[in-house]
Design goal:
With 302 residues, the chain is α/β, with parallel strands linked by helices. It is globular. The protein has eleven helices and 13 strands.
């Protein structure tokens, strides 16, 4: 097994005009990790993946893939990629396109095996331009896994897939990771990152804000969710005046708040002379933690 990290970014910067898409990025990915790359639109996720795949050069710093340049790793067949950008060939069948992908890979799998793994066997003879969006995504996945690659890079891989297709897709990705491959995926489906990733990276304005397990990212947000129901008229101003709040949402009789000190907030709530029913205090979900972390960073920039 190689002693090199699967991926290394060392002080990497990429600028477009006055926009710094990637800002002094440093990180390492290791064999067998499943890593989610999160960030709001414009955070630098796509540029980071482009740099990783050698599609764009870094302005400063260095990107290494298994100890070599991205181009060398890709030429050696060590990297498979599924990107949002770029179309698929028209007027060819799924079987023909996947067969071409296998033929071009330095360490190919049999085309029928790739088609079956991607859930394409039943539509292998259909023309690519006759596919639905979800089926096109499965073709892109097949091309990304056409050979025995050590790193699989996925950009919004399950966009357009229905629930069953998404579940099957991630089951396959778990198998890939269990075989020692590194899986890096960018996604807007934060529940996927929470359920699938061993590690979560949060980018914002090209900088790495958080790096850890989903549980660690949630803890980093430093807030908890408090939910309860109230009877009678709700005094929203009084609720918003509770201490340590970072967010409030009132819907009918239900109140949902976020607090950096849930104990003190609940104590103050009873001090208002109200009786909260169905009171629950819980940690933030990954989506709420992600929003809290990025909003805090935005507040610093203002």
């Amino acid at each position: 097994m190689t002693t090199h990290a699967a991926v290394t970014f060392s002080g990497v910067t990429k600028t477009y005009g006055t926009v710094r898409a990637v800002d002094d990025l440093g990180l390492e990915l290791h064999a067998g990790e499943t890593v989610a790359l999160l960030g709001p639109n414009g955070a630098g996720k796509s540029t980071t993946l482009d740099l990783l795949l050698g599609l764009r050069p870094a302005d400063t710093g260095e990107v290494r893939v298994f100890g070599t340049s991205p181009r060398e790793a890709i030429t050696a067949g060590r990297v498979g990629a599924m990107l949002q950008s770029g179309g698929l060939m028209d007027e060819v069948t799924v079987r023909e396109l996947v067969g071409l992908g296998c033929a071009l890979h330095p360490k190919p799998y049999p085309a029928d095996e790739v088609l079956a793994r991607a859930g394409l066997a039943q539509i292998a003879d259909r023309k690519v331009n006759k596919l639905s969006g979800g089926q096109e995504q499965r073709v892109r996945f097949a091309l990304a896994t056409a050979g025995d690659s050590d790193l699989i890079v996925l950009d919004e891989p399950t966009t357009g897939m229905d629930v069953s297709a998404r579940q099957a897709f991630w089951a396959t990705m778990r198998e890939q990771a269990e075989q020692g491959r590194t899986v890096l995926f960018a996604t807007h489906y934060l529940e996927e990152a929470d359920a699938i990733a061993d590690r979560v990276l949060v980018l914002h304005r090209g900088r790495l804000l958080a790096d850890g397990t989903a549980a660690e990212i949630k803890a980093k947000a430093g807030a908890r969710r408090v939910s309860f129901d109230l009877e009678g008229e709700i005094d929203e101003a009084a609720i918003k005046g509770l201490p340590f709040l970072t967010g409030v949402a009132v819907s009918g009789r239900s109140v949902r708040i976020q607090s950096t000190d849930a104990d003190a907030t609940v104590h103050a709530l009873y001090g208002l002379g109200v009786y909260p029913r169905n009171l629950e205090v819980a940690g933030l979900g990954l989506e709420q933690a992600f929003v809290a972390i990025t909003e805090a960073e935005e507040a610093k920039a203002r």
